[in-house]
């Protein structure tokens, strides 16, 4: 209860402030509907509208891009981290594109992949892969020297040291990268759904609701996207505690 209570109180506090803003007419009721109206419109969107399908499409695109990013970022990051000189040679390129807003890369990916499903997944996978690669490489490079030295003294080969020592030492940092990667993938997917010829997804639903002045539904979709991001982050936090329980020991 101690762990659950603060988030619940925070959510209730947010709703109370929202209600107060509506009652005080801080904004036009058309632009700022009440929490009850937003909840009603969101439920209606799930019952009789395409909101359930839109949510599924966004989740599926995010999962696809994350799996591609993980399949590329983890092995490449581990390989580069094991050869620090090589990583230092490409570090500028990795950091440059990792720091570049993904939306600025949309025109490039549109030229490469055209207007379609592949573009959204590719640009999200690219952004997430760089974050995962960065964390995996630094996780390997920061492996504790005493354990690596102990493995060498016992006659372990470089491949064995990489697999049995460095990889497990880097696992906490790799999971941090994966947690950041899936959150970034969700953000890029939602933005891509807004601007790259999409007919479904939460991003597209926000744009359509905004144009039709369905503000209750618009806020509801925004909260659904936020809840997805929060849930994915929470899932990976639990995984970090369960899977890499040796972190920091």
Brief digest:
The chain has helices spanning 5-23, 35-48, 51-82, 84-99, 106-113, 117-141, 145-153, 158-195, 202-211, 215-243.
Report on this model:
Helix content is about 80%, strand content about 0%. It has two domains: about 1-30; about 35-245, MetI-like fold, CATH 1.10.3720.10. The chain has about 250 residues and is an all-alpha fold. Helix 7 (about 145-155) runs antiparallel to helix 8 (about 160-195). The model has no long low-confidence stretch (mean pLDDT about 85). The chain is globular. It is built from ten helices and no strands.
Beta-strand proportion: under 5%
Contiguous uncertain segments of 5+ residues? none
Q: Would you list the SSEs in sequence order as H and E?
A: HHHHHHHHHH
CATH class division of the largest domain: Mainly Alpha
Which terms would index this structure?
2 domains; 80% helix; single chain; MetI-like fold; 249 residues; mainly alpha
Per-chain topology:
Elements: H1 5-23, H2 35-48, H3 51-82, H4 84-99, H5 106-113, H6 117-141, H7 145-153, H8 158-195, H9 202-211, H10 215-243
Helix pairs in contact: 2-10, 3-6, 3-8, 3-9, 4-6, 5-6, 6-8, 7-8, 8-9, 8-10, 9-10
């Amino acid at each position: 209860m101690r762990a659950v209570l603060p988030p619940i109180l925070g959510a209730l506090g947010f709703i109370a402030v929202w209600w107060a803003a509506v009652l005080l007419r801080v904004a036009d009721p058309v632009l700022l509907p009440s929490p009850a109206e937003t909840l009603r419109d969101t439920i209606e969107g799930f019952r009789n509208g395409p909101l359930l399908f839109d949510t599924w499409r966004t989740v599926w695109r995010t999962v696809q891009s994350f799996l591609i990013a993980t399949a590329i970022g983890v092995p490449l990051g581990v390989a580069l981290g094991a050869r620090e000189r090589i990583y230092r040679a490409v570090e500028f390129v990795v950091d440059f594109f990792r720091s570049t807003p993904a939306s600025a890369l949309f025109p490039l990916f549109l030229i490469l992949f055209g207007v379609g499903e592949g573009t959204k997944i590719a640009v999200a996978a690219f952004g997430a892969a760089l974050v995962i690669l960065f964390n995996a490489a630094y996780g390997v490079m920061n492996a504790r020297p005493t354990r690596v030295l102990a493995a060498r003294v016992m006659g372990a080969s470089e491949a064995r040291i990489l697999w049995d020592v460095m990889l497990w030492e880097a696992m906490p940092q790799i999971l941090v990268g994966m947690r950041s990667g899936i959150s970034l993938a969700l953000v890029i997917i939602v933005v891509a759904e807004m601007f790259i010829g999409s007919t479904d997804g939460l991003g597209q639903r926000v744009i359509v609701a905004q144009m039709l002045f369905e503000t209750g539904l618009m806020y509801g979709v925004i909260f659904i996207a936020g809840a997805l991001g929060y849930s994915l982050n929470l899932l990976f936090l639990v995984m970090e505690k369960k899977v890499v329980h040796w972190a920091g020991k």
